[in-house]
Amino acid sequence: MTPQRILLVSLACSILSSQPVNAFLSSPSQSRGQTSNSQHKLYAEKLFSQGVYDTIGEGRIAVIPNFLPQEDIIKLRNDATNLHQGSKFSTDALASYGSSGKFDPSKDRAVLKLQQWKDQGSGDWTIRERFGNRMKNLREDLAYNLDRPQMLLGDSVNKYGAGSTEISYTRFGPGAFLKRHVDEHHEELKGKAGWSKPTRRSMSWLIYLNDDWDANQHGGCLRCFERKTLPVSKTGARGSGDLQIGWLKATTAGGREEPVFMDAQHSGTDGANSGLCALYIEDPTSGAEGGRQYISKSFHSHPTLYIGGSELLVQNTLMNSKDLAQRFRLIEQPKSAVTDFLQSQESIEERILDVEPTGGTLVLFDSVTLPHAVLPTTTRERWATSGWMHEDQQPVETHPHFGMS
Predict the structure, then answer these.
(1) Which residues contact 131 (CB under 8 A, 6 or more apart)?
(2) Under a CB-based contact definition with an 8 Å cutoff, are residues 263 and 280 in contact?
(3) Dihedral (C-alpha) 154, 158, 161, 166: value to the nearest 10 degrees?
(4) 218-233 pLDDT, tens digit each
(5) What is the separation of C-alpha 216 from the centre of its chain, rounded to a whole number of angstroms?
(6) How is 184-215 classified by DSSP, letter by letter?
(7) Beta-bridge partner residues of 276
(8) What is the DSSP-derived secondary structure letter of residue 132?
(9) Is residue 249 within 8 Å of residue 281, measured between CB atoms?
(10) Beta sheet of 328-330, edge-to-edge order
């Protein structure tokens, strides 16, 4: 099936004003999971149509054309170009290109990292500061309208400054591309290092800075792999901080899929934190605490869950029934030559959507739920500003895996 290319999306949006959006938390000391929209004391006017927020909540990509005025696109691109020519960018060797396998910094993805971005004596600080204020407004709007109050609290805001927790310029040289991946994984699947970070990625965003881009001629589209079936509930993370790791396929034609979350601090038989993990789905009718229905056995997690064969491992050894095993899918399969090939094609369960990197276009998606890739550029450089809005990780003071007390 020919991939569908998104040029414009019929999602009405209003251009951000220079005025800050009102904070909406009833108290800055509210703990995770205790804030809902009905409890918010202050309200903000929406920046976008409701369809934008619904799309993100479903684990799909929201595309907002003309988010930036042309004047800002030009100034940001000129700033990025000048800083790149001044050797302020760093290559990360994450992109791929050609068949020789030899590293070529002129083709690789190059990034102006956060510390260089925040350097007021470097480049056009005035436009970067103005853009940072725009992103601060966006973060506040998304935190409220996606019911993610943690995006406005703690280290995710205070440690990194206004705007976005991570913010950078990115340049792809001719021929560069990124393979399919997701931007964030459950902390437990990253071992001890995963729990050692103060924050985790919550919202991924990009704003393209290119002029006169033609994807048929220049390539460089953002390729997204969305689930064909809509979910029964919001995706990505629970209010408790538990992240989604998979899906349960719908049981009937026309039904909806169920996001599968992992509880990494599962209670033992004595009610204490045993250090075990368990998979669950949301089920408000279950009568269980937190509205959870556990669908797997308790188990000790390990990063090997993201090594070849892990989906089969979960299906064959951990799920509570054969039916659940047959319906379970990981958000992202472990990497191998076979999965790289299979996941580059449109499948029965996923649809491919390509977003053209047109200047001024904003794309937003949940960092956990949406696999994506960058298709090869051809004869041009591909410029963007991009980043992630974080949330503080769930507390792990008593996590027995790491001897915390």
Answers:
(1) 72, 76, 163, 385
(2) yes
(3) -40
(4) 999 999 999 999 999 9
(5) 27
(6) ---GGGGTHHHHHSSEEEEEEEEEE--SS--H
(7) 266
(8) H
(9) no
(10) 292-294, 273-282, 258-267, 244-248, 328-330
> Which pTM value belongs to this model?
0.85
- Distance (Å, whole) CA 268 – CA 335: 33
Distance (Å, whole) CA 73 – CA 371: 27
Largest CA distance in the chain: 64
Contacts of 162 by beta carbon, 8 Å cutoff, 6+ apart: 132, 133, 136
Torsion over CA: 167, 172, 176, 177 (sign): positive
Rg (CA), the chain: 21
For residues 60 and 350, give the distance between their C-alpha atoms in angstroms, rounded to a whole number: 11
**For residues 67 and 207, is the Cβ–Cβ distance under 8 A?**
yes
d(CA 234, CA 146): 9
Q: Which long-range contacts (CB under 8 A, 24 or more apart) does 120-124 make?
A: 122/83, 122/88, 123/79, 123/82, 123/83, 123/86, 123/88, 124/75, 124/78, 124/79, 124/82
What tens digit of pLDDT does each residue of 232-287 get?
998 999 888 899 999 999 988 778 999 999 998 887 554 455 678 899 999 877 66
**Identity of the amino acid at 184:** E
**Residue type at 132?**
G
96: number of CA atoms within 13 Å, CB side?
A: 9
